[in-house]
Amino acid sequence: MPIDPAAPLVLTAYAWVPSFVHGLVRDVRIRWACEEAGLAYAEDLIDVRAKPDGYAALQPWRQVPALRDGETRWFETGAILLHLGESHPALLPAGGQARADAISWLLGALNSVEPGAMELANIAFFARNEEWAALRRPSLEESISARLAPVARRLADRDWLAGAFSIADIAMVHVLMSIQRAGERAGDLVASDPVLAAYLARGQARPAWQRALADQIATFERNKPKES
Amino acid sequence: MPIDPAAPLVLTAYAWVPSFVHGLVRDVRIRWACEEAGLAYAEDLIDVRAKPDGYAALQPWRQVPALRDGETRWFETGAILLHLGESHPALLPAGGQARADAISWLLGALNSVEPGAMELANIAFFARNEEWAALRRPSLEESISARLAPVARRLADRDWLAGAFSIADIAMVHVLMSIQRAGERAGDLVASDPVLAAYLARGQARPAWQRALADQIATFERNKPKES
Question: What are the backbone dihedrals phi and psi of residue A4, each rounded to the nearest 5 degrees, phi first?
């Protein structure tokens, strides 16, 4: 079982969040990587409604995840995935074009695909009653679609972005999930493309993803506020 | 002189772009890193108006930069900066908390600050006549401002994000430049904060940045279309 309170790897996550973001909060990406690599980690759970004083020293924007690995502290899912990948070839090939592909596609997921997905989540969940949100949505969905087409082309003749499964797939599959969860026509951006739909299903079928998701949700359920 | 047609490092960049994006096109980040590390690179210049067939094999979204290093191909500025950093401690510390900080802040620049900056550039340059753009701008500037505050706090007592200058600063300083170039109130988001303004000035004062910018612009000038 990867969750072990004595592990030297300590993952900061929220104790509880409302159910509409279950599976989306990004500590699940790190849980997934740990499950893939068979790496034990401890949970350091914080209250999303009352973040601890001084938490900005671990995560400048006071978000999750952050990771302590012995004496060393990391933040940003991409940085943490790269760090875990350094010592685990099951997450990141040690060299050659496969390593270059995995790192390039990881950054592609985070800097070329996710920015649009973040704005879509903003429109779908937080700004949904703003006048600009409904006006912006069609062109944003078009631009996300243009970012997804090259991902589908890459996957037309391979299961995973860099050959074997890697941290690039953890990031990209999770970004696809967040696009799909934003619903309406956006759900179709993934579901209507047979290559992307199959890739998403392959990612979600991995036992490591299923354990990571179950563990995130179990934590939320265990720490559910009485009043909600 | 870092630009050397015989160098094993080959950077794909645009031959020419309109002047409103001079200094913003992101190959300048890689030129900057090469200048800092004293690393020779060759230019592979492509036409932004007629990208070569097959270019998607080097850069899935058919943008720049892409990098070939001998037999290995990289894309995404973050991935290329990490790759160059691996063998150059002047770009990325080899270990310890300084390395963790540099990689975490690099990803912070690309995944926590730049997404808002990209949407701002979209509003300022490409979608400026859309009805949603003017409506969205105030809340977007607020959200960028909230992303910048922790950067300013980090820099309150240090010159660079990870101690010594690193690839994290190349990314963050360049993202700040792009926010400032989006003008109107956004320019003030950086200029009105004394810590961020001083950081930006420190970055822009580096001879390596100045050579990188000059080389990008010299390339654009040399390949300026007759009709424009």
Answer: -145, 110
